[in-house]
Amino acid sequence: MGVGQDLLDVPFPQMVYRLAKAIADGQRELDKSSIEAALELFKDKNKRKVTLEIIETISGNRTSPNIALTKVEAEMTPIQMGFMPTFYQFQESIIEVKMAISMRQDTEFGLDVSGSVGWGPFSASVNAHYSQKFSYSVEGSSLLRTKLVPVPPPARLVPTITVQDLRAT
Structural domain boundaries of the chain? Predict the structure, then answer.
């Protein structure tokens, strides 16, 4: 197997598709959750008593004033109080693939010759050796990273709140 083939075997298109699909699925679930939160914030069952105004009335004279506090209260849903659901959006996604491939080949050849010379027969020995070593290693890692940020709710979801004070002044 060659180095080029290893690089071709990385399923990069499949990684990109899976990341995109995961982001789309995740975005759909995040939007669904935010819409459910918005609907919950509109419900009358979640109304709470809110103090809209505190009126301080001072009467009497300078030496013994009378101070009275009057609270103007109303029941409001969380949306009327100004609470909005949080929406999120995937802002950035990164796929990073790292691969290190190394090949090594060692060849070794040796020849040992020994002999003896003297008055008589001649003898010699030859010892040859040959070895070849191959080593091959592949290391790889991949990283998928996404950045999720809060975004304002869709404009049509944010109601226009108009206050009409019909109290006599």
Answer: 3-46+79-151
